[in-house]
Amino acid sequence: MMKKSIALIFVCLVSVVLAIVLGSLFLRVKGAYEFSRVTKEILQAENLAESCCYFGVEKLNNKLTQEVEADYSTLTKYWDEDESNGTPLDFLCYLAEVENVPNLEFKEGDCLGAQAQSDQLEILLDEDELPDDELGGEALGTDISSITIYLREREDADENLPYEFTVSATASVNGTTRTVNLIGGEFGIEIEKAKFSRYALFTTKHTSPSGSLVWFTDDTKFYGPVHTNGQFCFAFNPGAYFSDVVTQADQYARFYNNGWTKERDDDHYGTTDVPTFDAGFTRGITADSLGDSVSKEYVKNEALSTMSEPSSAGVYLPANTSSATETIAGTLIGGIYVRGDAEIGLSVDSTDNAVYTIERRVSWYTTTTTTVTVDRPGNITTVNDGSATSVYLGVPDGASGDGTIIYVSGDIDSLSGTVQQDTDITITSEDDMFITGNILYEAYDLDENGNPTAEGYDNVLGLISWEGDVIIGTTAPNDLSIYAVIMAPNGVFTVYNYDRGTTRGDVTLLGGVITDKYGAFGTFSSYGAQTGYGRNFVYDSRMKNMAPPYFPETSNLTISAPELDDVKNLKMIWREDI
Question: Cβ neighbours of residue 100 under 8 Å, at least 6 residues apart?
Fold first, then answer.
């Protein structure tokens, strides 16, 4: 009996010791788990706050990148040292007051009229501007409390409008809150005249030349900004596709409604007509009039330079002949001017020189051909008119040297070919321009959707018909490709005999279209496309920051902060956690 009692006591003691050891181990494991959990949440909250800081930089870029109605000369006071009524911070206050500049507001009291009240401006993002909590990834219980941007003038900088900034963001994960400051970012603001080339599509009035309605259908795709000073018309479900912002001046859009058209202040009509707007459809917006800022005389003068306009038909390259030698005919001082009608072929020779073949009809039975070969690296241009060859110093980049210009005083009856990879060129005609074949860039790629892109390349083409139309001719192939920004300030971009024959595939345009009215490309019925081409218009995103040479400007100014475009590569001095 005694032995059993001793054994029982021993078992109890062992059990107590084991319980204490296991309890201690459990508490240690629990403590380690809790420490690990808290540490993980701290890191998640810090990372989330840092991501929000970079999100704030993107928002800042969007707020500063604007188009405004202003005279450039009135803005110089904000950086001119000889004028004492403005500073770079005052300019930001001015920009915040400009009508139609969205959501650029500073903390109350920072600005008084157009004068900054301190050495710093503060932007606190509104609740509806904050990113979704999903920015926290897999972290549970995420909350983004605030994102604040502080702007200061950067001293001793070369830019006219130099700034530095700090972004502060506060975020939490399961109640663990952290604030991160990204300090030391720098950028400058650039101001320049806006170009019409920034549009994927612009029309003064969105009708045919005769005034009939033109419909966006399921054959319509746009991958860039689209605007009309009139009203857009939409048909079918699914309907047209738009990847970028779509705006119109009219408050009401028109919908096909199976032939019983309806106007609505909306982006769709029931389930009958449903276009896709990836970036929204805004109505009641105004934009520039094409007639206010387009000047063919300016472009003509760039082609002619100091040369008087010829009265005889022919191809002319204005040159300074005082530099002529036995082998050199002179030095080019303008572009290429063609008196009369012409057919133009663009090509690239075996040594990668740009070649322009210009054919003119001098009678029903006779044509003349002038070949202009541009050796850009060698700064040499060779002209062969069929009877003689002349060599010039320089290239036909116009009087200002901004890029190649070809000006035709009549019609361009045929245009096709390839733009050399180092060439930026604008081809203009006073009257109609007919596209009769593919017009391609020598250097381009295809994106993941199979659409062309020229990002990272230098070749760019502008086509302008000043008084006529840009027309796709009957000899153009099916599934036509045109890489160019097309403009007809008093006409349309259209297909000749668009309402005859059968369907011809799509026109893939890499660039944009700026016209007075909207040219028809084909016809359709409730059964789909019947004749002509469908549109596959791909916006050349390079046009947000560039334009073909001598391309017409709008009456507005563009304000941008290019250094904020690439957030990942933005220079930051340090990160501070609070």
Answer: 68
Write out the two tokens for 504. 């011809």
Phi-psi region of 156 (alpha: psi -120 to 50; beta: other; left: phi over 0): left
The pLDDT assigned to 35 comes to: 46
Q: Which helix (H) or strand (E) segment is 292 a member of?
A: helix 290-293
Distance separating alpha carbons of residues 452 and 481, to the nearest angstrom: 9
First and final C-alpha spacing in the chain: 69
DSSP 8-state code for residue 219: T
**Global model pTM greater than 0.85:** no
Contacts of 514 (CB under 8 A, 6+ apart): 196, 197, 199, 201, 202, 290, 485, 486, 487, 488, 489
Using an 8 Å Cβ cutoff, are 68 and 94 in contact? no
pLDDT value at position 453? 95
Q: Please, what's the b/e burial string for 339-366 (b: 16 or more CB within 10 A of its CB; e: otherwise)?
A: bbbbbbbbbbeeeebbbbbbbbeeeeee
**Is 537:513 a contact under the CB 8 Å cutoff?**
yes
Flag residues of the chain having pLDDT under 50: 26-27, 29-33, 35, 137-139, 292-293, 573-574, 578
Bridge partners of residue 534, in order along the sequence: 506
